[in-house]
Specification:
This protein has about 425 residues and is an alpha/beta fold. Helix content is about 40%, strand content about 15%. It folds into two domains: about 220 residues, Rossmann fold (3-Layer(aba) Sandwich), CATH 3.40.50.2000; about 170 residues, Glycogen Phosphorylase B (Rossmann fold, 3-Layer(aba) Sandwich), CATH 3.40.50. It has 16 helices and 14 strands. The chain has an eight-stranded parallel sheet with strand order 7-6-5-4-1-2-3-14, sandwiched between helices.
């Protein structure tokens, strides 16, 4: 029988670091997953001890984090595996978690919050990085709103969307804007060796997109715009950085459009900052977005951007000031923006400089991390103040609550 466990909470000033478990399905290379890596790495270890749980499997970025913090996987065997609840509750209890943060919607949001409540975890939050499919807040997830201390949105429009369209309680929605590491992503001269590796000749204009090859990223629109750009600037090359389930379909479409010689699928890359340096224009053609990391990284590198006007993109890309915006399915408008920037290097450079200033103005990666730390600490301390008085726990229990044990990655049985 799954019973909720009760715990006596110790005030922050009298205890060790809070244990924080981030629950996610898996961690392929993507904006949300990359941001989670940076968040986990930068949490103040004097105050927080992060761990990760990838319900299905680690994938590329999960393997990276599993070398740095305690990490667990293999709890969810299939879509209908109800035993995941008991496994996850047991894990959270064994690791004596103080905080659960589910990352993304769907199964991890549902099982993570429910298991956290049953395990007596004091603080339960859900971080949501996108709007619409595949990250809709389903009926069952809405039913668990009373168990949730905070719904974390990454931009103002997304926060309003969570309240107005997804049914999240307004008083529980907190906006923490995404940040970018402006020291890693900065303007730099493109590497001649990298240009050679990517097959870019001298004088080629280069337009790129950095996004997982998933339906919502709408790479088909990028390819249609590329075909239109080629009519005006036939020497232009196009780089598609990322991988995913749509790759074969997109490669077939590239052949159909006669773009095989000028469109390069680069797959997953770890040197994104360096790859951005060889691009003259960065595009994003999504159907929906919240606060896309790839645009922030491009702008931090002083790259002008051309993007679809969806979600909160218009808060990031200021039309005519840091780049150009177009309607969500307007390939011709996207192409016009690309052609304008490729044909006017001075204008492109000016928009790029304004883009970096915009990124620095809206907040750094460390500001984002500090907001997470403040939110978690505030919720925990509020729970401490509200708990009924109990007899003090023993010294051994206090040490157990405050301590930690760093262990290697493991598949949870």
């Amino acid at each position: 029988m799954l019973l909720r466990r009760r715990r006596t909470l110790t005030p922050l000033d009298d205890r060790g670091p809070l244990r924080v478990m981030f629950v996610i399905t898996s961690m392929p290379v993507g904006g949300m997953e990359s941001l989670l890596v940076e968040l986990v790495r930068r949490l103040d270890r004097d105050r927080f001890l992060p761990e990760i749980c990838c319900l299905k499997h680690f994938d590329a970025l999960g393997e990276v984090l599993a070398r740095e913090v305690p990490a667990f996987t293999g709890l969810l065997k299939n879509k209908y595996d109800l035993r995941v609840l008991g496994r996850l509750k047991k894990l959270l209890h064994q690791r004596r978690m103080d905080v659960v943060v589910t990352v993304g919607a769907g199964d991890k949001m549902f099982w993570g919050r429910l298991a956290g409540k049953l395990a007596g975890v004091p603080v339960i939050c859900s971080a949501l990085h996108s709007t619409g499919e595949p990250d809709r807040v389903t009926f069952l997830n809405r039913r668990l709103a009373p168990l949730t201390d905070a719904f974390i949105a990454v931009a103002g429009p997304q926060g309003r969307h969570l309240v107005e369209q997804e049914g999240c309680p307004a008083e529980k929605v907190v906006v923490i804007p995404n940040g970018v590491d402006a020291e890693r992503f900065h303007p730099r001269w493109p590497s001649a060796a990298l240009r050679n590796e990517l097959g870019l000749a001298e004088g080629d204009g280069v337009v790129g997109i950095v996004a997982a090859l998933r339906p919502e990223k709408n790479h088909e629109l990028f390819l249609r715009a590329a075909a239109a750009v080629r009519q005006s600037l036939p020497a232009t090359k196009f780089l598609i950085v990322g991988d995913g389930p749509r790759r074969k379909t997109l490669e077939t479409m590239t052949q159909t459009l006669g773009l095989t010689e000028v469109v390069h699928f680069l797959g997953t890359r770890e040197d994104i900052a360096e790859v951005l340096s060889v691009m003259d224009v960065v595009a994003l053609t999504s159907h929906q977005e919240a606060s896309p990391i790839s645009l922030l990284e491009a702008m931090a590198c002083e790259k002008p951007v051309v993007a679809t006007r969806v979600g909160s993109v218009a808060e990031t890309v200021l039309d005519g000031r840091t780049g150009y915006l177009a309607a969500a399915d307007d390939a011709e408008a996207l192409a016009r923006g690309m052609v304008d920037l490729l044909g006017n290097p001075e204008r492109a450079a000016a928009l790029g400089r304004a883009g970096r200033e915009q990124v620095l103005l809206r907040g750094s990666l460390m500001q984002m991390v500090r907001r997470y730390e403040e939110l978690i600490a505030e919720i925990y301390q509020a729970k401490v103040r509200r708990q009924p008085w109990r007899a003090p726990c023993s010294a051994s229990e206090q040490r157990r609550d405050a301590g930690t044990s760093i262990m290697p990655k493991e598949t949870y049985k």
